Amino acid sequence: MILRDVSFSIRKSEFVYMIGKTGSGKSSLLKTLYGDLPLRAGDVEVAGFNLKKIKSSKLPYLRRKIGIIFQDFQLLTDRNITDNLLFVLKATGWSSTAKIRQRIAEVLIQVGLGSVGNKYPHQLSGGEQQRICIARALLNDPQALLADEPTGNLDPEVAEEILKLFIDINRGGMAVLMATHNHDFLTKYPARVLKCQNGELLEITSPTYKA
User: Fold this and answer.
1) 3-class SS at 18?
2) What are residue 69's DSSP bridge partners?
3) DSSP-assigned states of every residue in 87-109
4) Inter-residue long-range contacts of 201-204, CB under 8 Å, 24+ positions, other chains counted
5) What does the CA dihedral 124, 125, 130, 131 come to, rounded to 10 degrees?
6) Given this model, what pLDDT does residue 60 score?
7) What b-and-e string marks burial along 8-33, b requiring 16 or more CB atoms within 10 Å of the CB?
């Protein structure tokens, strides 16, 4: 048993941190929310999908409604940034070349990297690669972003820049659930906090928390 009796909801436009020690269940919970781990018991609804009833054939439709950002980027190293984003759009049903080009340009500008389309992942810094991952997550205009330690491999200054980007996206109306080990974020940029601890998911109320 990793987590038990979990009960929480996240509203549209809400920013939520999820904290907890390594192995406490943060990644497992996120994987359950985007359908990578099966729901063993209970009821979960994400972006209008009931995860208890969802069929594997419907998972791609769920994942169009939520953007997922990983700590280790998971970019395709054998193709440039434009082709990385093109791959996602083609895989999720986009067919119009003009609309694809427009959408790629839009998300690259949104993350502050409008001119890197022809570069390959290895030609970008870690912070730039993570921005591309955020751009990738935004392609289908999701209802929420789920981020699993998105700043864990970055220098503190770069990590803070990435957090600010998430905050800007959230202010635009998108829900964000971000797992993090960086407790400085909670102090400098207060938001709601969920904590995985001893098999439970706890709501944290502290001086760093604002309702």
Assistant:
1) strand
2) 147
3) HHHHHTT---HHHHHHHHHHHHH
4) 201/3, 201/6, 201/7, 201/8, 201/25, 201/29, 203/8, 204/19
5) -70
6) 86
7) eebeeeebbbbbbeeebbbbebbebb
Nearest-angstrom CA–CA distance, 170 and 173: 5
Tokens at 205, concatenated: 């109320």
Q: Are strands 45-46 and 192-197 parallel, antiparallel or unpaired?
A: unpaired
Residue 7 exposed, middle or buried by CB count within 10 Å (0-12, 13-18, 19+):
exposed
Residue 132 structure tokens: 């591309």
Three-state DSSP at 203 gives strand
User: What's the pLDDT tens digit per position in 35-69?
Assistant: 999 888 889 999 999 998 899 888 888 988 999 99
Instruction: Provide the 10 A C-beta neighbour count for residue 91.
Output: 11
The length of the chain in residues reads 211
> Which pTM was predicted?
0.90
User: At residue 14, what is the residue type?
Assistant: E
SS3 1: coil
Q: State the residue for tokens 């594997």.
A: 56
Report which DSSP code applies to 49. Answer: E
